[in-house]
Amino acid sequence: MKNRKRLCLLGDIVGMLAAGIIFIIPFLFIFLNSLKGRREANLLDLSLPSVWEWGNYKAVFEANNHIILTAFKNSFLITLGAIILLISFSSMSGYVLQRRKDRLTRAVNVMIMTGLMIPPAILPTIWIMKGIHIYKTLAGIILIEVALQTPFTIMLFRGFMGSIPTELEEAGVIDGCSPFSLFRQVIFPLLKPVTSTVVILNSVTIFNDFMNPLYFMPGSKNATVQLTLYNFMGQYSSSYNLLFADVMTITVPMLILFIIFNKKIVDGMVAGAVKG
């Protein structure tokens, strides 16, 4: 027993050291260099700044006519719109797929799994978006994000749905609930754990998405937070202090969200995996 405890303690220590090397040290490197002067930051070493240049963050916010504020607004609207649609449609889809057992349901499940494996086709998607006049628009990129995240989100809702007893639905039907009222008043309130998981995971993924806004919403007016980093790499390629300041600015919000709600993420995914 003592040997087992020692092995567990040793494993914890090794895990913490590995996490520090992989995550904490790079984060600290970026943070410290974001507060250095231009020449000092270009040395790219892990050391305290000789002078703490907090003005680097002000310069980042003022760059390109405050483009980072526009980028935050666009990223927030895209994330909010996509999350609302994902929760609305994926929760209902997961409910139906969990409760129905027929050939059509199995075929839909196969399509959902296929959606997880097949990458999106860029040029045909752009052609379709131009045809329906949603290319380079917030509505278009929101629909793209919803389409890409729907398979995984449905799987989460479907897995968690198995933990809800069917007796509750039978009682609702006896009380005269319509199918939609049954879902809205009885089933959906019970989905709070997995809904929290869906909101946090998809928010981090969509907010930090780089490729899709680059392809489907180009243009300086349509910039998102990750695209500002792409633009800054060209504009400030010799000013690593400003580049690192931009990295910190766009990373910290989602990092704080993930840290605060980390337990809810684990609870929601484990509940669906164990009870489903």
From TrEMBL:
Places the protein is found: Cell membrane
Keyword Chaperone part of the UniProt annotation: no
SUPFAM superfamilies documented for this protein: MetI-like (SSF161098)
CDD domains: TM_PBP2
Chain segments annotated as transmembrane: 7-32, 76-96, 108-128, 134-157, 186-207, 240-261
Family recorded in the similarity comment: Belongs to the binding-protein-dependent transport system permease family.
Matching Pfam families: BPD_transp_1
Metal-binding listed as a keyword: no
Topology in membrane: Multi-pass membrane protein
InterPro entries, sorted: MetI-like (IPR000515), MetI-like_sf (IPR035906)
Domain ABC transmembrane type-1: 72-261
One GO BP annotation of this record: transmembrane transport
Species of the source: Murimonas intestini
Main location: membrane
Protein name (record): Raffinose/stachyose/melibiose transport system permease protein
Gene Ontology, cellular component aspect: plasma membrane
The entry's keywords: Cell membrane, Membrane, Transmembrane, Transmembrane helix, Transport
